[in-house]
């Protein structure tokens, strides 16, 4: 699973599933990583299910959206954009930016967002960890598009809502139809689907 999903969402579902099936010998194993790492593990049959960004069509996996997520722009507190409450991404083009590495599923979403502005961002640094990006922004290395994280409230950053362009960021539950899926895994998959899609919101 992606690390953001391991903070509350997946543990809540796993605990709920165990509670709904008392007395059964059900064992979970949990692994975290970036999307490509998780999909490689699914292809290698290391995992029964993975929770990650949307896989590309070349993987030929079955992917179901299970959670939506809002993205925000963060800036150092002394940045020229920091006085704003919201921003159009085209306004950020002149400034150095910190991006997720291309192995991160969220990178494709952010690339598409900037492509819709018709301009290319100035990518100063790349890393795969959202908290590392936030730390670099706090120290003035650039600005960044990231998912909301509670740690942002403790750092010297300003949070700006993204007015434009419109976007959709979703997490997916993914499995491989070409391999046998144990009945208990099928049951958990249905349990997740019955839980319904959540929208992760940042505090107002």
UniProtKB/TrEMBL annotation:
A GO cellular component annotated for this chain's UniProt record is: cytosol
Q: Which domain of life is it from?
A: Bacteria
Record domain LysR substrate-binding: where:
7-194
UniProt-listed GO biological process terms? regulation of DNA-templated transcription
InterPro entries on file = HTH-type_LysR_regulators, LysR_subst-bd
Protein name per its UniProtKB record = HTH-type transcriptional activator CmpR
Which organism is this protein's natural source? Mediterraneibacter gnavus (Ruminococcus gnavus)
Gene of this entry = cmpR_1
């Amino acid at each position: 699973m992606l690390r953001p999903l391991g903070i509350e969402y997946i543990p809540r579902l796993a605990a709920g599933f165990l509670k709904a099936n008392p007395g059964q010998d059900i064992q979970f194993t949990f692994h975290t990583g970036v999307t490509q790492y998780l999909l490689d593990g699914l292809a290698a049959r290391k995992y029964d299910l993975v929770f990650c960004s949307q896989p590309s069509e070349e993987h030929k996996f079955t992917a179901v959206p299970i959670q939506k997520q809002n993205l925000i722009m963060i800036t150092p507190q002394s940045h020229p954009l920091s006085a704003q409450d919201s921003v159009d991404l085209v306004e950020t083009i002149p400034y150095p930016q910190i991006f997720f590495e291309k192995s991160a599923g969220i990178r494709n979403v952010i690339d598409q967002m900037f492509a819709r502005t018709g301009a290319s961002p100035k990518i100063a640094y790349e890393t795969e960890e959202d908290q590392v990006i936030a730390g670099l922004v706090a120290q003035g290395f650039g600005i960044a598009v990231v998912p909301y994280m509670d740690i942002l409230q403790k750092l010297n950053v300003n949070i700006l809502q993204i007015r434009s362009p419109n976007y959709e960021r979703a997490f997916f539950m993914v499995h491989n139809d070409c391999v046998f899926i144990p009945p208990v895994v099928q049951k958990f998959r249905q349990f997740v689907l019955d839980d319904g899609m959540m929208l992760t919101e940042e505090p107002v």
